[in-house]
Amino acid sequence: MQKQKKSKLIVIGIVILLTGYVINQFFKSNEQKDRIIKHDMMIGVCAKNKASVESNNYEKLKTHEDIKLELQTNETFNKLFKECEKEFKKAPKDFRAKWNYKAKWDGN
C-alpha cells in the first residue's frame, strides 16, 4: 500500500513537470515566432525601400503575410530581400538602427 502511494506521487510529479515543460515550450515558441516576424518585417522594409527607388509596386506590402507572399511570387523582391539579409549579416546593429520596422513600416 505504501509503495503504491509513492508510485502514485512519483507519477503525479512527473505529469506536473511535463505539463510545466510543455507550457514553457509553447511560450518560447510564440516568442521566437514574434522575433522572426519582426526580423522579416525589418528586412522587408529595407527591400521595399530599395525597390521604391525603381517603382511603387511594393506599396501594398503592409503585413508579414504580404511580405511572405511577395517573396514567393516575385523574383525581384526576393533578390532585394536577400541583399538586405546579407547587409544585416555584415552589420546587425547598424542595420537595425537604419531599418527598424516599428519606425519605418506603415502597417502591422
Concise summary:
This protein has five helices and no strands.
Shape: elongated
Q: Mean of residue pLDDT?
A: 84
Rg is 22 Å
Can you summarize the main beta sheet? none
> Number of folding domains?
1
Number of strands: 0
Kindly estimate the percentage of residues that lie in beta strands according to DSSP.
under 5%
Distance between the termini: 60 Å
Q: What sequence of helices (H) and strands (E) makes up the elements?
A: HHHHH
Structural class: mainly alpha
Give an overview in words:
The structure is a single chain. This protein is mainly alpha-helical and 108 residues long. The protein has one domain (2-104). It is built from five helices and no strands. Helix 1 (2-52) packs across helix 3, helix 2 (64-73) packs across helix 3 and helix 3 (75-90) crosses helix 4. It is elongated. The mean pLDDT is 84.
What layout of secondary structure does this protein have?
Layout lengths: L1 H51 L11 H10 L1 H16 L1 H8 L1 H4 L4
Helix pairs in contact: 1-3, 2-3, 3-4
Kindly list the characteristics that best describe this protein.
single chain; 108 residues; mainly alpha; 0% strand
